[in-house]
From TrEMBL:
Its main location: membrane. The chain crosses the membrane at residues 6-21, 33-54, 66-88, 100-121, 127-149, 161-181, 187-204. Involved in the degradation of specific anti-sigma factors. The keyword Transmembrane helix applies. Keywords: Cell membrane, Hydrolase, Membrane, Protease, Transmembrane, Transmembrane helix. This is Protease PrsW. It comes from Thalassobacillus devorans. It is a multi-pass membrane protein.
Length: 222
């Protein structure tokens, strides 16, 4: 059990540390990040219950519906909802980049519990693959969600549009990720590697843009 927890938490800690220390100004309070992470972790249980109920009833079981609705839409919606409910109006959410930090914290909380359950059921031999693909993909979806929620709050008059993008861009990418896994059989790796590389390129670019916007907002406030 200790080895499973270590293997499950190591990539999460590495990614969260990278995101946290990439903020150029006013690092966020750790208690709020931890609370947000825990909220993300708790989301796994109602989400898995809903998915289980649909599976038992035989609903939305085609690979495409399952990938985009039961995985992409359901999982990203609950993360998006808890972000808006628990973080969006918080006084510590005061820079564009903060959206990325809290978006990643929620997503990694979700990914951590999901990863522990998977490793308990299937064994630690899958730990590295889980770190490279499911855990990092959740974090990257969190970067994109947080980027557009931050943009909605600080850098645009198109708030509703940005909040919509904060939901549906992760939904589309999450659905595509799951569809690659479920429909490409033994060839999935050849599609997943460029897909993940593209996500990382986009994610790093959003990190830089959010930091730039945060720095501009900070300088104007001074």
């Amino acid at each position: 059990m200790v080895s499973i927890l270590t293997l499950a938490l190591a990539p999460v800690a590495a990614i969260m540390t990278f995101i946290y220390f990439n903020k150029r100004i006013e690092l966020e309070p750790l208690p709020l990040i931890i609370r947000t992470f825990i909220l993300g972790a708790l989301l796994v249980f109602p989400t898995m219950f809903i998915q289980y109920a649909f599976n038992i009833e035989g609903l939305l079981q085609s690979p495409y519906l399952h990938s985009f609705l039961l995985a992409g839409l359901l999982e990203e919606f609950v993360k998006w909802f808890i972000f808006l409910f628990a973080v969006y109006q918080h006084r510590e959410f005061d820079h564009h980049y903060d959206g990325i930090i809290y978006g990643v914290a929620i997503s990694l909380g979700f990914a951590t519990v999901e990863n522990i359950i998977y490793l308990l059921a299937n064994g630690t031999q899958y730990a590295w693959g889980r770190a490279i693909f499911p855990v990092s993909s959740h974090a990257l979806f969190g970067i994109l969600m947080g980027y557009y929620i931050g943009k909605a709050k600080f850098n645009t008059t198109r708030t509703k549009m940005c909040l919509t993008l904060a939901l549906f861009i992760p939904v589309a990418l999450h659905g595509l990720y799951d569809m690659i896994l479920t429909t490409t059989s033994n060839a999935w790796l050849y599609l997943m590697i460029p897909f993940m590389a593209g996500l990382w390129v986009i994610g790093i670019r959003k990190i830089r843009l959010a930091n730039h916007h945060s720095a501009n907002l900070h300088s104007k406030a001074e």
